[in-house]
Specification:
By secondary structure, the protein is mostly helical. It contains 3 helices and 2 strands; from the N terminus they run H-E-E-H-H. The protein has a two-stranded antiparallel sheet. A hairpin with a 2-residue loop joins strand 1 and strand 2. The relative contact order is 0.05. InterPro entries: Sip5/DA2 (IPR039301).
Length: 178
């Protein structure tokens, strides 16, 4: 190890300890490169396994969350029978409960499909660099911000033009000249 030649002691960029020095051992051998690649591959495989497990856990949580409200909706949607003085009366569920049930089922199917698609995409692109992902996200957000700004501007322009038309119609109504 060589000591730094500068007058000031060098600090480690991570832990800020003094007298930081870098040791260069020469070019890596093919064996060292192979071992390093195997370690990187193991890390990537472990990350993929962890992500799949997270997705499965999320899917189970979503099922559990949806199962609780669905059981309430199903219970209210079922036909209840009550007996009063030997006569049996039937209370039917409201159509609104059936709509809620079908919308919940559709929502859960959509979530499952989206998670499967995300898994496939992530499995195909596991070697994407974090910086690339962050850059794509920043671009996407800037596009959304621009779209929102143009929507807001167009809605303001529409509001102003509507107010002008309203003022003109009121003017014409009072002046009887339009």
């Amino acid at each position: 190890m060589k000591s730094p030649t500068s007058c000031r002691p060098t600090q480690c960029p991570y832990c800020k300890t003094l007298n930081y020095a870098v040791e260069y051992r020469g070019v890596k051998t093919m064996e060292e490169k192979g071992i390093e690649q195997l370690e990187e591959q193991r890390v990537i495989e472990a990350q993929i396994r962890m992500r799949r497990q997270e997705l499965q856990d999320d899917a189970e949580r979503m099922k559990n969350k949806q199962a609780a409200p669905l059981s309430d909706v199903v219970a209210s949607a079922q036909v209840d029978s009550c007996s009063t003085d030997g006569a049996s009366t039937v209370a039917a569920s409201s159509p609104r409960g059936n709509d809620a049930l079908s919308s919940e089922v559709q929502r859960s199917e959509l979530i499952l499909r989206n998670s499967e698609v995300f898994q496939q995409r992530r499995g195909n692109n596991f070697d994407v660099d974090l910086e690339e992902v962050m850059l794509m996200e920043a671009i996407w957000l800037s596009v959304q911000v621009r779209q929102n700004k143009t929507k807001n501007r167009s809605s303001i322009v529409n509001l102003v033009s509507f107010e002008r038309m309203l003022a003109m119609s009121q003017y014409c109504a009072f002046s009887d000249g339009c």
